[in-house]
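User: For my dataset I need records formatted as: sequence, then structure tokens, nothing else. Please produce one.
Assistant:
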Amino acid sequence: MSATNRPIYLDCHATTPVDPRVLAAMRPWWEENFANPGSVEHAMGRAAEEAVEQARGYVADLIGADAKEIVLTSGATEANNLAIKGAARFAASQGTDRRRVVTLATEHKCVLESVKALEAEGFEAVILPVGGNGLLDPEVLRAAVDDRTLLVSVMAVNNEIGVIQDLAAIGAVAKAAGALFHTDAAQAAGRVPLDVGEIRADLLSLSGHKVYGPKGIGALFVRRRPRVRLAALFSGGGQERGLRSGTLPAPLVVGFGEACRVAAIEGMLDSGRIAGQRDRFLAALAAAIPGIAVNAPDAPRVSGNLNIAFPGGVAAQDIMAAAPGVCVSTGSACSSAEVEPSYVLRALGLDEARARATLRIGIGRFTSPADADRAAAMLAEAWRRVVSGTSRAAG
């Protein structure tokens, strides 16, 4: 498909386009030096290892960590599984009395499923509610966390509604009770400042394709001092400090590192520009569709996110079908094939009709003002056609 008739992409929470600088950094490691970074007996292997370690440093720098604390994974889903199951299983092997794992009802499915899976292993899963703004009340957390709590897992930025949790406050509650604190920061990295020391994180998950890097690569920060111990999820050659065996994909690691390097330099500049495009898009849409509403409007949210409920009793799926020239979604890419309305929106207290009428908009680094204008016009026209069709059908 040519650039002139390519759909306008506004789904940057599902994935981001790979930055051209990332592609350029990766290319030599596909073509010129394809060596295994573990093959340190020869020059090409040592060069690949050096590139991987430089990239690991860039990933660490983005979150204020040490390179030795970065365990490379296939993405945030694996990192979340390793953090939650790995921490629980290691603790169980040591005979701990801490058996409670606390998380939120609005977490990504991979976190919720990991926590629930631990119930079969004798752990207590506590799924906390959020307020209508999508935020966790620190007092609700404080009431749920005690000396039986092993782990608190709360995502930094929600993948559907874009709200930013107060990680420093959450980390303080977890640490006061002697519990581990994990955060899924896949949607936060490069969008909001992150420092593992400031938020007192023990474990933090990242994903390459959410920061304009490649798919298939991510990382888990594992604190070294005081040392956090995890049980590996699978066996192998002992790469990544024995926590994640398998040959490292050097091109993907290099691309992830370059994406993090760029994000550390330009992320806040991006945020200001992206916020401008978001506000422009919303103003145009609101002018064309009276009664359109933003879900969780009062919460702090990342600059590129809009979670919008359309009026008129329409289904968001129908609006998407009527606007094939705009790429948006109804919620998490992992769950978008499901017919059920978003569990995140239901956790906010929204009724089923409003949840079904909601679209998730993700504006990104490469969204232009013209993209914002055209997308708003196309979605507004699609809404008018759907409402008109619904009215005729009712009549």
